[in-house]
Write a structure and sequence with these properties.
The structure is a single chain. The chain is mostly beta strands. The chain has one domain (about 5-395): Porin (Beta Barrel), CATH 2.40.160. It contains three helices and 22 strands. It has a 20-stranded antiparallel sheet that branches. A two-stranded antiparallel ribbon has the order 16-17. β21 and β22 form a beta hairpin. The chain is globular, with a radius of gyration of 21 Å.
Length: about 400
């Protein structure tokens, strides 16, 4: 192992591991899982994940440690360590360190506390650095053809903080700031054409340094932030961004509103989830990776990540989460769900260009494993006119 990842892993372990007397009473369960997956952009994975689930004396999940060794058909062997620490009230400390044989790196550390200072405030901070060698770009607009597919390596550093004040139990006003530095894009790890060679004039190919300030409104009546079964959430935001890249237009703004509503059956064994999302970007010379996009694990799941990109976005999704069974797994209670869904949406350059012919529709089905109240593991398969796409994640799509 290279020295840098080893040092980061030790730092993260020191940050996560509890130093309280309760640790002596912790119950540790190991649950090896074969890792076999196929992604539209990222190739095929073959390997092993060995999660360790660490519960406290009360039986609640306190820590999740998940080392992974994966062989990927594009970037070679990848070693990853995922670390999670959970506390009551939705507090979560997360760390990820990953190193691939070819190009790719990822380091992340984040902390959120939605009930800081006896529930009066919400705070969150995170920092990350990564190199992704399989990023795709097809051009700007809602009708970019599949034959325009290109590839590049994204090397970027991000940091952000967020502070929210609760007006009441379900309403919050928050301010946040984000920093994003993207290096000039480099050749990717696939044999596809290099993005910069095909789209040399698209804003952002020479990199960007973004500092953004956002104010947001949150209305949330859901009964859990991570594993909800009922309620409604509305988020609206306005954001001003400064691009410090020499020669670029320095200012642009972004706005958005997202509405999520859950309709639960009386037994909560079937939950209908509806999500609507509207985004708008105002300004010129906006880097293409700063604009709205459709495709990926959270919207239009039948397409690869960022399949369609433009300044504005409208999207709508419906998902039925159907409970299958509850069982004790590795010392904790786990629920399993099946979730048929339909995603639709389009991107566009201005609202006068909205057209029904540009809407894309992707039906699909998802499978979920849930350890309440903190952990969701999922696999979603979506189908589109360009084939299908499979996505895995550690959260709900919305």
């Amino acid at each position: 192992m290279h020295r840098l990842p080893a040092i980061l892993v030790l730092i993260l372990l020191g940050s996560f591991w509890p130093l309280s007397p309760d640790s002596a009473q912790a119950d540790v369960q190991y649950f090896p899982i074969p890792a076999i997956s196929s992604s539209k952009n990222d190739g095929n994975d073959f390997g092993l994940i060995v999660p360790a689930l660490i519960t406290g004396p009360d039986g609640e999940l306190k820590h999740l440690v998940a080392p992974m060794v994966i062989y990927n058909t594009i970037v070679g062997t990848r070693g990853t360590l995922n670390l999670f620490h959970y506390e009551p009230g939705g507090k979560e400390l997360r760390g990820i360190a990953s190193w691939s044989e070819k190009i790719e790196r990822k380091f992340l550390l984040s902390y959120v506390d939605p009930g800081f200072s006896n529930g009066r405030y919400s705070i969150g901070v995170s920092a990350s650095h990564f190199k992704n060698a399989t990023v795709r770009f097809f051009g700007i607009g809602p009708e970019t053809p599949l034959g325009y597919e290109t590839n590049y390596t994204a090397s970027e550093t991000r940091a952000n903080w967020k502070f929210g004040i609760y007006a009441n139990e379900v309403t919050q006003i928050a301010v946040s700031q984000r920093f994003r530095h993207m290096d000039a894009i480099e050749r990717g790890a696939t044999e596809l054409p290099f993005t910069k060679s095909v789209f040399p004039t698209v804003p952002g190919v020479e990199g960007a340094t973004i500092l953004g300030e956002r104010i947001s409104f949150h209305y949330d009546t859901r009964n859990s932030l991570v594993t909800p079964t009922d309620g409604m959430a509305v988020t609206a935001y306005a954001e001003m961004n400064h691009n410090f890249k020499p020669g670029a237009q320095p200012l642009y703004s972004r706005y958005g509103i997202e509405i999520k509503k859950m309709f639960a059956s009386e037994s909560k064994r079937a939950i209908l989830v509806v999500r609507a999302d509207l985004q708008a970007t105002i300004g010129t010379d906006v880097p293409f990776y700063e604009q709205s996009s459709l495709g990926g694990q959270n919207n239009l799941r039948g397409y690869g990540v960022d399949r369609f990109i433009d300044k504005q976005l409208v999207a709508f999704s419906v998902e039925e989460r159907i409970h299958l069974l509850r069982t004790r797994l590795a010392g904790v209670m786990a629920d399993f769900e099946i979730a048929p869904f339909v995603d639709t949406g389009q991107v566009f350059s201005s609202f006068k260009d909205v057209s029904f012919k540009d809407y894309r529709v992707t039906p699909g089905i998802g499978f979920r494993g849930i350890i309440r109240p903190n952990v969701v593991g999922r696999i979603d398969y979506g189908f589109s006119r360009e084939g299908g796409a499979i996505f895995a994640g550690l959260d709900f799509p919305y």
